[in-house]
Design brief:
about 15% strand, globular, six-stranded parallel sheet, about 325 residues, alpha/beta, 11 strands
Length: about 325
């Protein structure tokens, strides 16, 4: 079969070639989207990462496509309805970095509440060792509100207990065994917002979780709480977040993801290639306000990015391709 990989690193290419040595493989060093299409159009399988955008126009441009492998757990960058209409199967990587993302979550958390970046930046930029404005708070004894207790959220609960934090959680499908093992209660979403000193988000992005935290409920958050988001940017309404930060509802935010983050990462390309009607320009501008706020830490969707996690992602993705070729595909996403 003809297989196209988008945005693989060189070490990944070598592994893919050895694993799929009987197949016809092409590598493209860019993300796949309607503005970045390969000259060849007869691929049976494509493998992409979250920076690609596989919509109906991409599918129309690849008429022989039968299978899409996303090297990620999330799949909101793929139009599943369009895939279903063309009988194209989609697979993902259900688990690759439960500990990886959970560890990064606490990295953001500690950096934010202990003002580590502000301290580092002060010394680096102006050579000042002044402690003014750098007083933080302890994790021990604080209440952590975990929104979503799947694989990553469960690992966050475990780490939190190591810091001697109090844990409360919300999940539409509570994990009773986890709750009993780590001695924490499940509460309603509103109760978690009202009670947590630190909120951390670990839910998939879909129609139900779009703007899960928004202008109508963000005022419920305990005054002076912190928000951590290593999930997806669209789970938090950006305008509501800025309002909460400016009004002191939130003391700070640690964000590895943003709404419209693709535009923010490639603004020059957006200016020349973009289509404004497809993007919320108000949100793009709001992101710059967040970037400039001293009580906000933003990282470039980097929580997944460890060597070990990337190795697991690649191995699972290659296995997804192999089983599809063999006629028994695994890790299929419901389209």
């Amino acid at each position: 079969m003809k297989i196209a990989f988008f945005n693989l690193e060189n070490w990944e290419k070598e592994i893919a070639e050895n694993y799929l040595k009987d197949q016809e493989i092409s590598f493209f060093d860019y993300a796949l989207n309607k503005d970045n299409l390969p000259e060849e159009k007869d691929f049976d399988i494509v493998s992409v990462f979250v920076d690609s955008e596989v919509d109906s126009k991409v599918l129309e441009a690849l008429p022989q496509l039968k299978f899409i492998v996303t090297r990620s757990t999330g799949f909101d960058h793929i139009d599943l309805k369009a895939c279903a209409s063309k009988n194209i199967l989609v697979s993902n990587v259900p688990a690759y970095g439960d500990n990886t993302v959970a560890e990064f979550t606490f990295g953001l958390m500690i950096c934010l509440i202990r003002k580590i970046f502000l301290a580092y930046d002060r010394i680096k930029e102006i050579g000042s060792f002044s402690l003014e404005g750098l007083r933080g708070v302890d994790l021990k004894g604080k209440t952590l509100g975990v929104i979503g207790t799947g694989r990553i959220g469960s690992r966050v609960v475990k780490i939190a207990k190591g810091f001697e934090m109090n844990v409360i959680a919300y999940d539409p499908f509570p994990n009773k065994k986890l709750s009993e093992e780590f001695n924490f209660p499940y509460l309603s979403f509103e109760e978690v917002l009202k009670s947590a000193d630190i909120l951390t988000l670990h839910v998939p992005y879909n129609e139900k979780t779009h703007h899960l935290i928004n202008k109508d409920n963000i005022s419920l958050i305990k005054k002076g709480a912190y928000l951590i988001n290593t999930s997806r940017g669209g789970i938090v309404e950006t305008e509501a977040l800025i309002k909460a930060l400016k009004e002191g509802i939130l003391a700070g935010a640690g964000l590895d993801v943003l709404e419209e983050e693709g535009v923010v990462k490639d603004e020059m390309g957006f200016l020349f290639r973009g289509h404004p009607e497809e993007h919320n320009l108000k949100t793009v501008l709001a992101n710059h306000i967040l970037i400039d706020m001293d009580n906000v830490i933003i990282t470039p969707h980097n929580a997944f990015n460890t060597q070990e996690a990337l190795q697991r992602i690649l191995e699972t993705s290659l296995e997804n391709i192999k089983t599809f070729i063999q006629g028994s595909p695994v890790n299929l996403v419901k389209t």
